[in-house]
Amino acid sequence: MIDKINNLKMFFKTVFGNINYITIAVITALLFVVSSIWLANYNFLYHTFVSDLLSLDYKIKIVFNFVELIKTSVVISTLITISIISILFGINIAALIFYIKKQISISKGIKASVWASLVSLLGVGCFSCGSVIISSIFGFSATAAFLGFLPFHGYEFGVIGIISLLISIYLLAKKINNNFACKV
């Protein structure tokens, strides 16, 4: 266990010792939060923009008023999940970019990072309407029926996303700390 903690410490010093990767992680996390809030408010934002009753200036103010958008559509548990996934997503993307820059050939570590990032996106949504991404793909009715059968009504995707991102970050940390050496 101590080795794993030391491995993660060395990983964070290696990757995030460079301000560029901190910047990548922060920007990626912020973009994920913004996208999640906008996706959770998709119907509201759509109707706001197609409405003839509001001025363009007011429509833009509504879109960028994140505090009100969060209040109207996101419960605290979803906000916590989005925050955790955003931070992990930012770390994962920054580490992946670091790894790709250092490693020319594509490996299993990159595939795991991409997989973890995609799974974490499935968890974006709320308890009342479910996953926004799944709803977009399969339609609201099919998604509602599917999520109704799940024990936590779709919240599982957020948890699976968090676990997948943690595993991905750990595997990338191992690869980065092993000086990109091939074990063959």
Automatic annotation (TrEMBL):
Where does the source fall among the domains of life?
A: Bacteria
Q: Could you list this entry's UniProt keywords, alphabetically sorted.
A: Membrane, Transmembrane, Transmembrane helix
Q: Which residues cross the membrane?
A: 21-40, 74-100, 112-140, 152-173
Q: What is this protein called?
A: Uncharacterized protein
* Protein source organism: Candidatus Buchananbacteria bacterium CG10_big_fil_rev_8_21_14_0_10_33_19
Organism classification? Bacteria, Candidatus Buchananiibacteriota
